[in-house]
Amino acid sequence: MAQPANLTTKYDPKSTEAKWYQFWVDKGYFHADEHSDKPPYVIVIPPPNITGILHIGHAFNNTLQDVLIRWKRMQGFNTLWLPGTDHASIATHNVIERKLKEQGKSRQDIGREEFLKLAWEWKEQYGGTIINQLKKLGCSCDWSRTRFTMDEGLSRAVREVFVRLYEEGLIYRGNYIINWCPRCHTALSDDEVEHKETKGYLYYIKYPVHGTNRFITVATTRPETMLGDTAVAVHPNDERYQDLIGKTAILPLLKRPIPIIADDYVDPKFGTGALKITPAHDPNDFQVGLKHRLLQINVFTTTGMINDNGVQYAGLDRYAARKKVVEDLKAEGLLEKTEDYLHQVGHCYRCHTTIEPYLSLQWFVKMRPLAEPAIAAVKQGRIRFYPESWTTTYYHWMENVRDWCISRQLWWGHRIPVWYCDTCGNETVTRTDPTVCVHCGSGLITQDPDILDTWFSSALWPFSTLGWPEETKDLKVFYPTSVLVTAYDIIFFWVARMIIMGLKFRNDVPFRDVYIHALVRDATGRKMSKSLGNAIDPLEVMEQQGTDAVRFTLCALAAQGRNINLSEERIEGYRNFANKIWNASRLVLMNLDEKSEIRNTKSEMDKLSLADRWIRSRLNTTAKKVDEGLTDYEFDKAAHALYQFIWHEYCDWYLELIKPRLRGTNEEKNTALSVAIYVFDNTLRLLHPFMPFITEEIWQQLPIKKETESIMIADWCRYDMNLVDAAAETHMDILMRVVVSIRNIRSEMNIPPAMKSEVLIQSNNAAKRNLLHQYAHYIKTLVPISELQITEQVSLPKTVSTAIVDDIDVYIPMPTELIETERKRLQTEIDKLKKEIAFVENKLKNESFIHRAPAAVVQKEKDKFTQLTNELGKLQEKLSLFSKR
Predict the structure, then answer these.
(1) 375 Cβ contact list (under 8 Å, min separation 6)
(2) Between vectors from CA 35 to CA 30 and to CA 39, what angle results, nearest 5°?
């Protein structure tokens, strides 16, 4: 015997979420078993920075991963969602240095050892904040396996990779142009530079040609860098400058002689066709300089000030130097002109300071030999991108990859494992810290002060987190992983490098699928930011609307290839969806009493009504759509299939249809409840990955024989072609469309909801007439009807509205008592509309308005006139139906 459920009148997320999350943790449901014989399904979390707090992008990314993990867990996979955090060198430096600045100190004041001590203390106190916030989101990670990119195991993996690459000649040290952040005081890789369109100027500077009265004019956006010029270049085929090639120009202001060279790098169409060459401060100039063996003169300090090579400008900030250089050029008559110029300027991806191309001694990884196998892996189909269009982007980056600058001039991170010998000058690179030089045995060795790029350690994430370089059980069972879920803005930072490192050190891809999702923006498509005041705090909105509503909203909006335009109103709408589900459960469960007998409806097919068979078939179709959506990473399609089924088919149709049976005989009631609960049980299973908390709360109340203690490890609702009932779906579709047409007519005729109406249906299709006769009680259940006629030919009264459903005509006569009221209402609307039309018409006849008003305003009035005229025609047509008999 079933017992009535104990459900509150309103769903309260606050009292539900913490309770069930702790229950799942206590039961160990998130834990992956390395000894299980179940097939593995593995996701490694994109490790958030230890400095981070949960923003809407995190919520989106991790919700999608949790949906996949919960789905596969219910399908019987041995799921591992491996969590962890990244040490985030630059971001952590910014946090600690900001605190030091408040005390009037710098990191140089306290020294490296004390700074690292502060960083570790901060990490222990605040570094786990975002992990706890992910738990509030409902993330079912295996927290027992949580890793940190600087923990002992991962640090060993980083050291091993560096040493192996060094030994193979794939890591080297050299002087090259790198991206330098004067604010963070460190090198950045090309991928860590954000290019922003910036308004600037193009300065045309006249360089005197030695021994002549001529000048050669160059155009530049950064006149301060001319202090480091070592040549002027022209295209070898540019006729304007043929006689100047090989001559000497005099560098303005500093009076230094520099050669005029020819190089096909120069674009004759840009500026004047002559370029200043500054090898120490421009990557392209650097290459030209190597080719022509030019001097490399660095004129900047690491803080962006002019150094002694700038002579009279030494000590000036780079922008102050620009201003002073321009003033002096004007004074000497060497500034020909200045033009406004819009160009792309690189900025540090962390502090947003304008970066400087800077000649510096750094460590690099040779990328081309490593990129080739990574390109082949995708071309061979061993890795698939979703959406597929990202494959092209991946190829473009990999095929044009440049060597990766991996050294950073910071203290927090993995120290570069290289020691320099003061005695013999050689390098010692080993897996353990050396005490003497491996080349000469001298104890006078010093470790490189730099650290490795944060992305170096995170590139190893899929296998280092599983215990590599040890051949652990976890590594054997869970590598390669199944899918990587990430945003497109780190496809180069992280995705490509993980593929490279996985193939290099595991001889296998790190994941089979890569799902690249879009970015979350506000309702109007703008990037969310605190400064714009349009950021949505997921923690705050989860508190207000419930975590399930936030999760479902993000999934429902996750269309491939499109950014997500999110508003709090959308989230509120899905909070209403949660309430709808809750109310549906109360309707079903509150009808249980001591006489209720919930049966296995699979074995009682002969007792099922058309509505029962229809809803079971629709459930089965929905299960297929959800599986297909998740398999193809089309989360929005899966979510929409569930929303449509639950709200419209189960709640709005099926539950309404069974209400009379719930008041009928025990047999009728028990069958209806059995089907309703069977469908609800399976629906909750399909919905659980998206809305885990409310589904667990309701599922625990269902009076069914449960195979497990929790819905999160219950069997998934699988598609079964044997349960498809095409006839039931076809018949119900006809009945539903007839009901909708009746409702629409009543709405158009303004018939009050409680008033019953006469309905006349005619059709020359005998099979459909029989169907409508057989299930007339469904129509009467869903619409207030006083009399229902279903015939081949009906006799129509004068005042009637109609609708056509294929070969079925539906008519509703206007109730006599409403005819006069409706006629007066329509006449009032018509009179009002005529006045509006006259007003607009007079405006359009006014020649002054037509000639003086903007064209867009005139067109708007014309469109308004057309719209009002169409509305008038429709109202007059309606009024004709209500003319007095």
Answers:
(1) 395, 398, 399
(2) 75
Distances (CA, A) of 454 to 87, 155, 251, 405, 493: 7, 12, 41, 11, 10
User: Could you give the CA distance from residue 556 to residue 689 in angstroms, rounded to a whole number?
Assistant: 13
Instruction: Give the amino acid at 61.
Output: N
Which residue carries 């049966």 as its tokens?
599
Q: What is the pLDDT of residue 885?
A: 43
Q: At 78, phi and psi to the nearest 5?
A: -85, 90
In the three-class reduction of DSSP (H, G, I as helix; E, B as strand; rest coil), residue 498 is classed as: helix
Predicted confidence at residue 884, as pLDDT, reads: 46
Q: What is the pLDDT of residue 237?
A: 93
Residue 333: predicted pLDDT: 94
Q: Identify the bridge partners of residue 43 per DSSP, sorted by sequence position.
A: 81
Query: In 510-665, which ranges are continuous DSSP H helix?
Result: 538-545, 547-556, 568-589, 610-631, 635-643, 655-662
588 near 680, Cβ under 8 Å?
Answer: yes
Q: Give the Cβ contact number of residue 713 at 10 Å.
A: 15
Q: How far is CA 134 from CA 458, 530, 539, 547, in A?
A: 20, 21, 10, 11
Phi and psi torsions of 298, nearest 5°: -85, 125
Residue 638 amino acid letter: A
Burial of 83 (0-12, 13-18, 19+ CB in 10 A): buried
DSSP lists the bridge partners of residue 565 as 521
- DSSP secondary structure of 731-759: HHHHHHHHHHHHHHHHHHTT--TTS-EEE
Residue count of the chain: 885
| DSSP per position, 484-532 | EEEEGGGIIIIIHHHHHHHHHHHSS-SEEEEEEE--EEETTSPBP-TTT
DSSP 39: P
Q: What does the alpha-carbon distance between residue 376 and residue 373 come to, in Å, rounded to a whole number?
A: 5
Please report the pLDDT score of residue 883 as a whole number. 59
Query: What is the CA angle 757-760-761, rounded to 5?
Result: 135
Residue 183: which pLDDT band, with cuts at 50, 70 and 90? confident
Residue pair 158/452 in contact by the 8 Å Cβ criterion: yes
Whether 66 and 137 have beta carbons less than 8 Å apart is answered as yes
- Paired residues of 446 in beta bridges: 420
Within 664-726, strands assigned E span: none
The CA-to-CA distance between both ends of the chain, in Å, stands at 61
Q: What is the pLDDT of residue 352?
A: 84
- Mean residue pLDDT of the chain comes to 91
| Structure token digits, residue 61 | 């990314």
Structure tokens belonging to residue 451: 């650290």
445-447/427-429 β-pairing: unpaired
User: Exposed e or buried b for every residue in 332-354, given b needs 16+ CB within 10 A?
Assistant: eebbeeeeeeeeebbbbbbeeeb
Work out the angle at residue 722's Cα, subtended by the Cα atoms of residues 717 and 726, and round it to the nearest 5 degrees.
Answer: 105
C-alpha closest to that of 262 among 306, 204, 213, 216? 216
In the chain, how many H helices and how many E strands? 28, 29
Q: What would the DSSP string read from start to end of 246-281?
A: T-EEEETTTTEEEEEEE-TTS-TTSTTSEEEE-TTS
- Cα separations in angstroms, 477 against 79, 238, 338, 508: 11, 64, 65, 14
Of 526, 530, 531, the C-alpha closest to 567 is: 526
Q: How far apart are CA 312 and CA 767, in angstroms?
A: 99
Calpha distance 424→444 (Å, rounded):
9
Distance between CA atoms of 499 and 750, rounded to whole angstroms?
64
Considering the entire predicted model, what is its pTM? 0.85
Angle, CA 426 vertex, CA 440 and CA 458 arms, to 5°: 125
Cα 7 to Cα 680: distance, rounded to the nearest angstrom: 15
HSE value, Cβ hemisphere, 13 Å, CA-based, for 789: 15
Structure tokens at 843: 């405006």
Which 3 state secondary structure label does DSSP give 355?
coil
CA-based Rg of the chain, rounded to a whole angstrom? 37
